[in-house]
Amino acid sequence: MSTNGVQQTTDMQVNELYIQAIEDILSKTLMNIDRFETRFPHASIDEKYILNDNDDWTNGFWSGILWLCYEYSQDERYLKAAEGTVASFRQRLDQQFNLDHHDIGFLYSLSAKAQWIITGDESARELALAAADVLMKRWRNTNDGSGYIQAWGAKDNEHEAGRIIIDCLLNLPLLYWASEQTGDPKYREAAEIQAERTRRYLVRGDDSSYHTFFFDVQTGIPIGGATHQGYNNGSTWTRGQAWGVYGFALSYRYTGNAAFLETSKRMARYFLEHLPEDSVAYWDFNAPPADDTYRDSSASAIVAAGLVEIISHLDAADPDRLYFEEMLAISMQSLINNYATIGDDAAEGFLKHGSYHVLGGFSPDDYTIWGDYYYLEALMRLAKGIPGYWYGRK
Ligand code: GLY
Q: Mean pLDDT, the chain, as a whole number?
């Protein structure tokens, strides 16, 4: 197609690019199955994934990658490896090993729930429901008749007891889904209150966001925002904004509450309007931009997957949809052309230049398993309509 003499990329060419990127990931993942054995990749140092036992918040992403590869290819090698990860998650739940935090949805949506979605395995469904019960233990009642999901630490931890975190939005789909499955509204009610509390207090008036926010433990009265991985308390940590974009869109899917979709769209606009020239985000929107300022490709990958979710809720002729579609195509092409390891057959990761915790000094410019997961999820959604595992299939 040619417009005013300018060669346009056709939809078919774009789809071919996505398929090429997926095929590259499939072969890397086969090699990674052999390299990682029973361990779980987290983020990298010197281009090698740090491999851990199943003991961190990031372990579900490897499982999710394996399930996506299996759904796409139907190749039993991915299935076998994916089932192996779910067995490990079963053991982790049985032993209650390192589950005393809000990240249970990241872990069990992409492992046990994914297995149930794809294979219909009843024991996997039960495992995911048991995980939802574990997440509900983070619920703290406040004496105004409301409550919240405590991010980290024990209930009596003086510093952490009143803290919520924007990342938790991605853990709420496990709760919404548990209500759908069991008919018990308690999970959905908690999730909706948490999403609304996050919308009111972590999203600022200009659609930027705090990473975390503290409340009075007894009364639920708001105290103030604070960062954990961002540049400073008043800054907007890019990945936190990305969790908001995708997370609110998912809360809209489950609840139909239009305020959640509106918030997701506004946060997406903020994100897209604050990108540098190559359309992939710096690690914090307030980090002074310089030649050596780190990017966070994982934040852009999360937003890409989130934009696909937003777009799925908008009419074809909606001008917002046209804007988001255009920005999504630009972001994906930049990720593929400038950040992906396509063609580097020995690479373990799929996306370079992700950052975990810049000021903490942890993997500030590396592969991240969540960046790899969301990049693959976005590709799968765009090229094949495989939507990932945040919600069940009709
Ligand atoms: N949920 C932790 C992170 O995004 O680094």
A: 96
**Is residue 107 assigned to a domain?**
yes
Does the C-beta of 113 come closer than 6 Å to ligand 1? no
Average pLDDT of 336-365? Answer: 97
184 annotated active-site: no
**Strand ranges in 218-261 using DSSP code E only, listed in sequence order:** 222-226
- Please indicate, yes or no, if residue 218 is contained in any of the structural domains: yes
CA distance 49 to 368: 8
- pLDDT tens digits for 9-20? 788 899 999 999
Cα–Cα distance measured from residue 275 to residue 281, given in angstroms and rounded to the nearest whole number: 5
pLDDT tens digits, one per residue of 82-91: 999 999 999 9
Pocket flag, ligand 1, residue 167 (CB < 6 Å): yes
- Find the angle CA(372)-CA(230)-CA(158) to the nearest 5 degrees: 110
What distance in Å separates the CA atoms of residue 293 and residue 215, rounded to the nearest whole number? 33
* pLDDT surpassing 50 at residue 231: yes
For residue 47, the domain's CATH number is: 1.50.10.10
What domain count does the chain have? 1
pTM exceeds 0.90 for this model: yes
**Per the residue annotation, which of 11, 53, 167, 184 is the catalytic one?**
167
